[in-house]
Specification:
The chain is mostly helical. The chain has nine helices and two strands; from the N terminus they run αααββαααααα. The chain has one domain.
Length: 260
């Protein structure tokens, strides 16, 4: 029995697996320590082998001599390409976490942060709540399909054994991350604005009735109003996150164009 092994197909699958490995290492819900590395490889390798025939037409002629330095450089380039695409997706999640931190601080939950064993750090409860909701929207809106499509198109923009333009792509990602604070404030705006008005109203009450202890009365009122506004503003949260994910698809296209 003779097996005919297509070297170009194997190289496509290996490069795709490297780019998928970075994606699965940084993708929401997959970046937890509770997800073993072998599970991520079990997803990356079969998926890369399935996508390799789609990327094969974009693979140019192989170099004359495939030496270890050439393969190592291509491995590093593939890891960086996958990381840049994943950073473009994580832009929305970074903004959502920032919005949750702002909302939690306004409500008064900044002193009740929970310990996250995945990151060995304290996290805001509201920020983690927003993060889980955005992760659900990420998969329910099929944004992960667009990310996989961008990985396949990355073979057309950045074929293996070609030098990508990392400077332009990195600058584009950095400029996109400058909008994190604006997007986060847009998500947290309902809670922040309403609680600002509540704080102003409590200041007026304290001035008119000094016998009322503002700390005893103010904290329960801000927590109750904040949680109520948080629940009623989830429709606003969904709309902002959906538009942000739609803009992320355009960002992925521009990152691929910058890499090329």
């Amino acid at each position: 029995m003779v097996f005919d092994l297509d070297t170009r197909l194997v190289i496509c699958a290996a490069v795709m697996a490297l780019r998928l490995a970075v994606l699965l290492a940084l993708l929401p819900l997959m970046d937890n320590r509770s997800v073993p590395i072998w599970w991520r490889l079990a997803v990356a390798v079969p998926l890369a082998w399935a996508l390799a025939p789609m990327a094969l037409p974009h693979l140019a002629a192989l170099p004359d001599g495939l030496t270890w330095p050439i393969l190592a450089i291509e491995a590093v380039n593939s890891l960086i390409v996958g990381a840049l695409l994943t950073f473009a997706i994580n832009l929305v999640f970074a903004a959502v976490r920032f919005a949750g931190s702002v909302a939690g601080m306004q409500i008064g939950f900044a002193i009740v942060n929970a310990y996250d064993p995945q990151t060995n750090s304290q996290i805001s409860i509201i920020a983690h709540f927003y993060y889980l909701l955005s992760a659900l929207l990420f998969f329910s809106l099929d944004v992960h399909h667009h990310l996989i499509q961008a990985l396949v198109l990355s073979f057309q923009a950045v074929p293996p054994f070609h030098a990508p333009d990392f400077v332009s792509a990195t600058g584009l990602i950095l400029r996109a991350y400058s909008d994190v604070f604006m997007l986060g404030l847009r998500v947290a705006a309902p809670v922040a604005v309403v609680l600002l008005l509540v704080s102003a109203a409590m200041g007026v009450v304290v001035k008119t009735a000094p016998q009322i202890h503002v700390l005893v009365v103010g904290f329960p009122v801000k927590i109750a109003v904040g949680l109520f506004v948080l629940g009623t503003s989830l429709v606003h949260f969904r709309g902002v996150v959906e538009r942000s994910f739609a803009a992320t698809e355009d960002l992925l296209t521009r990152v691929l164009a910058a890499l090329a």
